[in-house]
Each structure stands twice: as C-alpha cells, then as structure tokens.
Amino acid sequence: MSAVATTDYPLRERESGGAEQPRWNPLTRTVFRFCVVYSVLFCLTTTQIPFAYSGWFSLSLQGVAISVDRFYEPVLRWVGRTVFDVRVEAIPSGSGDQTIDWVRLFCVLVIAVVAAAVWSVLDRRRTEYRTVAGWFLVFARLCLGGQMLTYGFVKLIPTQMPRPRLSTLIEPYGNFRPMGVLWNQVGSSQPYEILLGLAEVSAGVLLFIPRTALVGAMLSLVDMAQVFVLNMTFDVPVKILSGHLLLLSMVLLAPEARRLCDMLLGRATGPATSPYPFHASSARRIAALVHVLLGIWVAAGLLHAQWLTWHLIGEGRPKPPLYGIWSVTDFTRDGQRLPPLLTDQNRWRRVVVDYPGTFTYQRMDDTLVTVEAKDDPQTHRMVLRTATPQPAPLGILTFQQPAPDKALLTGELEGHQVTISLDRVDPDRLPLRSTGFHWLQDRPNP
User: Fold this and answer.
1) What's the confidence (pLDDT) of residue 61?
2) Is the CB of residue 102 less than 8 Å from the CB of residue 240?
3) CA atoms within 13 A on the CB side of 228
4) CA distances, 360 to each of 58, 315, 339 (Å)
C-alpha cells in the first residue's frame, strides 16, 4: 500500500480526516492568497482563456474580446485617464498587448493586492490552505490546459502561421517586420509547425488527465518558455498572455519543486505533496472522468473550429479564378503602351491573386498594393475598390484566360482605359518552395 500511495497521482494526499496538517509560515500564506486572487481574476478577465472552452460556438475571438472589453471599458477608461493619462479603447486588431490590456492588468494587480491584504486580516488565524490550494490548482490546470490546446490546434492544423502568401514571395525581405519574419519562417515549414502544435496539444491533453498533470505542467513550461521568448524577441503582441501562461505553469509545478529538484539531482524522492480536493476513491474516479470528458469536449470543439478555418481561409480554401503570381508583359493605358520604367507609377510590374475578395498589384518600384475585388464568375468581371483608408472605386476589369499560363485584363482603371497582358509565374519554382530536403549536402544552401 505504501509503495502505491507514493506514485499514484490521485492518492498523493494520504490524509486522514482528523490529522493535523503542518502549519504554513506567514509569508507562504500571504503569497498564496495573492496568487489565488490574481490568477483567478486574470483567467476570468482574459478573453483568450475562456475562448478555449467555446470552440463549438460560432464566436470569433475578436467578437468575444470586444463584448467583454465593453463590459469593463468604462472603468478601464477612467483608470487609464486618471492614473496613466492615456486614452483607453478596445481595438479589434487581434493584439493582446493593447493599452486596455495593460490597464486591465494593472487593475487586476491592484485588486489582488487589496483582496489579499483584506483576506490576510480576516483569516489571520488559519494556519494552512491545503483544501483551497487543491481547488485552485485544479482551476489553474484546466485554464492552462484549455489554452495549451488552443495554442496547439492552430498549429497542428496550420492556420495560425499559414504558408507565405503569394505576395510575400515577391516582397523584399527588408520590408518585413520581426513578427512577419517569424510567421513566414514557421509557415514555410508545415512539418515544423505541426510538431510545435503537437507538443502544445500534448501538454494540454496531459493537463486534463489528473495522473499525468505534473508531466503536462512540465511540458507546458517548456512550450510557453519558447513562445514567450519568441514573442519578446520578435515583438509579437501576445506578451501578456504568454508570460502569464508561463507563470501559471510554474504555479502548478511549485508544490512539487522539491521533488523535481531531488529527481534532477539523482536523489530519492518522497511521495507527491500537491494538494488535491478529492480524497474518496469514488470522488477521485468521478473527478478524473469529468476532467477527461471536459478535455475531449474542448479538444473536439477547437479541432472543429480549426478545420472550418482551414477550409475557409487556410490551404483548403477555394481559389479565385486567376489564382497565382502573374508577370505583366504589356501594359497599355488610353491606347499608349507604357514601357517598363522603374519611375512609372502608373504601370504595373506584377499581379497577385491569392485570396477571394482581394487583388494585389506591384508597381514598378516594387510597392505592393492590395485592393478589394468582387469577382463575377459569369461575366469574368472584377470590381476593384481601394481597401484603405476609406474604400473608393478603383475600376472595373474583365479578365480572359486563353491559356493556363496567359491572361488578359481589359477595362477601366482610375478613369483610364487599360489593357494588361499577363504571364503566369510558377511559385513552386521559387527557391523558398523548390528547395527540398537533402540528406547529402556538400555545401550549405542558404
């Protein structure tokens, strides 16, 4: 019985109902109170974490974020104006490091400090919090597990970092910001991205199973350390969330820190000491089943959502009629042929058609301009409108494709009659796509 109890996760607390528990020192009790309040408030007010549990619902992350932010926004706006003298506004940009997010984090910190102080005064006679700690660790584990599954499935089904857009293949490298470099680097190797996602999904799955939660927390720590470093060094605007998920992994590992150090140093380890709120055998079995079923529900919902995303905007999306990179071989404007001069702002150099509803052309100075395009498959017409700052009519072009590698655009563009001849450029012949894997390689091929 003793040997089993020291290795079985659900049995790690061999507590008798009347046994006196060891006292926690005052500093440990104070830090614990603060960690509980701060972590719970952060998890409940950070929309990305609850979003992991809504994969079956037709809700977008930005939509959820806007709704939640509007609930808190009056208070956050007042705090931002009064304390920091800044304007607070929820911007639907996908960034998790907006001004409103930092102000919210400040509010959570202040509330946690005040609540922990009040809790310490009102509950100063209590000597330990093992029962509260057990429930808190379960809550933190489920929050972290859901977020790890979210992080993982968007890579396991490569939608977070898709293959570089066709326009990216002709964009000068120096034009990319650090985040764009990271996104395109990972997206250029889908096996690598899938392996990253597999590691994060594995951590999430392990966290939903009580017996493997410790391993899941260790794997989450490694995964989130990498994510946090990448976010910091490539200026990815998810620094707040990734940093807190890293801290949440440490919180889950903290009760077992001594045993983990003993194991790494090759010393004998004692029984697990992490608090667990379920003690009866039947309660442990029911809790484990509930955790596993919850994990299956979250994983299936996220998998379903990412599969839909893959077919809507990912690699499985429908391709526009003129999909591809096209080189402009001839450009006629109001009956006059425009030679390919680098100083000509009217002539196009290339045309890129990648996603439905968008149309990209490259000027002679290599500037890329993306506009809105409404295609009519029946008449082969494209209605073009500028995308920013305010949509405005740009022109109407009719396209013909006499051969798979030839196309002709005719119509009106910015009030001028144009005829544009195009030749298809095969993107799979570009070095980024054509350079495969080599076991035998006498020289590097950067």
Assistant:
1) 46
2) yes
3) 16
4) 30, 19, 20
User: Would you say 234 and 179 are in contact if contact means Cβ atoms under 8 Å apart?
Assistant: yes
Q: Distance (Å, rounded) from C-alpha 341 to C-alpha 343? A: 5
| Domain identity same for 138 and 246 | yes
pLDDT digit string (tens) for 27-84?
999 999 999 999 999 998 886 676 666 665 544 444 444 455 567 788 899 999 999 9
Angle, nearest 10°, between helix axes 213-233 and 190-208?
140
Indicate the pTM of the whole model. Answer: 0.85
Q: Pick the closest to residue 193 from 155, 234, 231 (CA basis).
A: 155
Contacts of 446 (CB under 8 A, 6+ apart): none
Q: Please give the average per-residue pLDDT across 395-422, as a whole number.
A: 94
- Both 270 and 337 in one domain: the answer is no
Q: How far apart are CA 428 and CA 434, in angstroms?
A: 6
Residue 270's pLDDT band (cuts 50, 70, 90) = confident
Indicate the number of domains in the chain.
2
